[in-house]
UniProtKB/TrEMBL annotation, chain A:
This is 4Fe-4S dicluster domain-containing protein. Coiled coil: none annotated. Residues 3-33, 81-112, 113-142 form the 4Fe-4S ferredoxin-type domain. The chain crosses the membrane at residues 235-256. Its main location: other. PROSITE patterns: 4FE4S_FER_1 (PS00198), 4FE4S_FER_2 (PS51379). It is found in: Cell envelope. Pfam families: Fer4_11, Fer4_4. InterPro entries: 4Fe4S_Fe-S-bd, 4Fe4S_Fe_S_CS, FDH_Electron_Transfer_Unit, Formate_DH_Fe-S_su. Keywords: 4Fe-4S, Iron, Iron-sulfur, Membrane, Metal-binding, Repeat, Transmembrane, Transmembrane helix.
UniProtKB/TrEMBL annotation, chain B:
It comes from the Bacteria. This is Polysulfide reductase NrfD. The keyword Cell division does not apply. Belongs to the NrfD family. InterPro entries: Electron_transfer_protein (IPR052049), NrfD-like (IPR005614). Keywords: Cell membrane, Membrane, Transmembrane, Transmembrane helix. The chain crosses the membrane at residues 12-35, 47-68, 98-119, 140-162, 174-196, 216-235, 241-262, 274-294. It comes from Geomonas propionica. Its main location: membrane. It is a multi-pass membrane protein. The keyword Transmembrane helix applies. It is found in: Cell membrane.
């Protein structure tokens, strides 16, 4: 019953309908970091002109749960050019670093497989933030808690699709059952490869399978995604073992240094 | 657009690095004291007594920075009780969760040892307590407490290693080991400072503590070297300005190398003079700067 999304970046036109739909459905305010005070102007003034193509969102944040990336590729002779778009969000990892890290059970997985933050439980310890390999989950100074895409938890539990998929005019964002989406993705991949294009799916193996996965025509790094994401908790056993061995080493060092005393005590008893 | 877009937690160094340091020192002092308690005759107790007097007051400071850094400080109890179910919650995959619980256990043990010594030294006489305290065998909570202490000194490093920030991830699996050794060394320095302050010249005991500490500091230097090799290019920040002073000059040179050299040179000198005092203070300051450096090198 796992729900998810398939993002076919090859048919995205960069219209940002998904960003708008996300903000509207989820009642998200403008990103506070994007506005400043100007003397003499009674309202906040936008200062989020990144100069990076048509992007003025910059990154995912506590109020921007979707982010359309614009990637301009121009070759050295300035003859060949390509404009790539990719709409990014939480991937709802099957092995989610954020969820594994949370000490309060604020981050849970629902019966539909999506990963959500329970606002009433989060204490704002921020441990989940560096634990997400994709840099998704973000802290809000306003609420003192973390926020991210919920896969439209309220909508999908009432038989609707996600707001972004609903709004996407090209079908680049598809909502559905993960196995169905994978079939669709495989078919599209075969079609592109048949035309001789370089294409790959991102998200089948990563973190035991991303519920929100992508079709890319270049390396993941070009789209701002890590090439080799690692669920950080997979290092826990080794780290713990090394630390325990060190503790044993310290214990032995203490024993060696206090041994004289033990000997001394024995001699004392013998005499 | 860099693919290394893993976000920074923005933990405030003046809370979190200070917590790492204070908890590490308290835990280090405690397990050194407990080792003496466990391995020694009943007569020589200067070091373990000092350890108990150091560990508990230091640990009392710990909740302040930990809670102050939360986005919702009033909800700190969610670390122990799942607020929506009302039952205790422990997440074995999360060092933050396990660490919070072990802090409680460690706190209990340091409190018992602290009271135990106050009664033994006849500073307090709490009739009820005096009647009952001996029923909990001292060695038992020295054992439990030292295991908890090892955990407290080391888990903060493991916590950094199991995130996706490049520097913290690349230094896996050594951060826990380094924090543990550093905690033991600053713990030993705190014990010695206490002995100087109370003008206890524990003679042979201090000599043994010193030789133990020399071994610790040598391994600390080795660990730092290997850790930097592992970190590779993710440690680039450590050769930029604030870190050149804070990490290389402060933590490594003045905090470990110089005191270590002093320890070898002054082996026969009278314990408790001004140079001794200064070199213990250097070790403590170095331990603090080490935590600040390794925290900020992963955050900036
Ligand atoms: S992408 Fe990040 S925030 Fe989303 S489920 Fe995975 S680890 Fe959590
Ligand atoms: S900030 Fe909130 S959601 Fe994130 S780990 Fe801490 S308690 Fe859990």
């Amino acid at each position: 019953m796992a729900k998810g999304m398939f993002i076919d970046t090859t048919i995205c036109t960069g219209c940002k309908s998904c960003q708008v739909a996300c903000k509207q459905w989820n009642g998200l305010a403008a990103e506070p970091a994007h506005f400043g005070k100007r003397s003499g102007v009674p309202y906040p003034v936008a200062d989020n002109f990144t100069g990076d193509s048509y992007d003025n969102t910059g990154s995912l944040s506590a109020t921007d749960w979707r982010h359309v990336r614009f990637i301009e590729q121009i070759d050295e002779q300035r003859r060949e050019k390509r404009w790539l778009f990719s709409s990014d969000s939480c991937k709802h990892c099957s092995d989610a670093g954020c969820l594994n890290a949370c000490p309060t059970k604020a981050i849970v997985r629902t019966d539909l497989g999506n990963v959500v933050v329970q606002q009433e439980t989060c204490i704002g310890c921020k441990f989940c933030i560096p634990s997400c390999p994709y840099g998704v989950i973000s802290f809000s100074e306003e609420t003192g808690t973390v926020h991210k895409c919920t896969l439209c938890n309220d909508r999908i539990h009432n038989g609707l699709g996600t707001a972004c998929a609903k709004a996407c005019p090209t079908g680049s964002i598809r909502f559905g059952e993960v196995p169905d989406l994978r079939r669709r993705a495989d078919a599209r991949l075969a079609q592109l490869k048949g035309k001789g294009e370089k294409a790959q799916i991102y998200g089948y193996e990563e973190a035991d399978g991303l519920k929100v996965f992508y079709l890319f025509t270049d390396r993941p790094g070009v789209y701002g995604q890590p090439e080799q994401p690692v669920v950080p908790q997979r290092r826990l056993v080794l780290c713990s073992l090394v630390t325990i061995l060190t503790a044993l080493g310290i214990g032995v060092a203490a024993l060696v240094n206090f041994r004289e005393r033990l000997n001394g005590k024995e001699e004392h008893h013998e005499s | 657009m860099s693919p290394d877009n893993v976000q920074v937690p923005e933990w405030a160094w003046y809370y979190i690095a200070v917590y790492f340091f204070v908890a590490g020192t308290s835990a280090g002092a405690y397990f050194i004291g407990a080792m003496e308690e466990l391995f020694s005759s009943a007569k020589e107790r200067e070091v373990s007594r000092a350890a108990c007097y150091v560990a508990f007051p230091l640990l009392l400071l710990v909740p302040i920075p930990l809670i102050a850094d939360l986005g919702r400080p009033g909800r700190f109890w969610h670390l122990f009780i799942y607020n929506q179910g009302g039952y205790p919650y422990l997440n074995l995959q999360s060092p933050m969760s396990v660490g919070s619980w072990v802090l409680l256990v460690f706190g209990g043990c340091t409190l018992l040892s602290f009271l135990d010594n106050l009664v033994a030294d006849r500073v307090i006489s709490f009739p009820l307590f005096s009647r009952y305290y001996n029923r909990i065998p001292r060695k038992l909570y020295a054992l439990v407490g030292s295991l908890a202490g090892f955990f407290i000194a080391g888990y903060t490093g493991v916590l950094l290693n199991v995130t996706a920030r490049p520097f913290w991830a690349a230094t896996s699996p050594l951060m826990g080991a380094l924090f543990l050794v550093s905690g033991a060394s600053t713990g030993a320095a705190a014990i010695s400072l206490y002995l100087i302050w109370r003008q206890r010249n524990a003679g042979e005991e201090v000599a043994r503590l010193e030789s133990f500490d020399r071994a610790l500091m040598i391994s600390e230097l080795l660990l730092i070297a290997v850790l930097l090799v592992l970190a590779g290019h993710t440690a680039q920040l450590l050769v930029t300005l604030p870190f050149l002073v804070m990490f290389w000059l402060g933590a490594v040179a003045l905090g470990i190398a110089a005191p270590l050299w002093f320890k070898y040179r002054s082996r026969r000198q009278h314990f408790g003079g001004a140079p001794h005092l200064a070199h213990y203070l250097c070790i403590l300051a170095g331990g603090l700067l080490l935590r600040i450096s390794l925290l900020q090198a992963g955050q900036l």
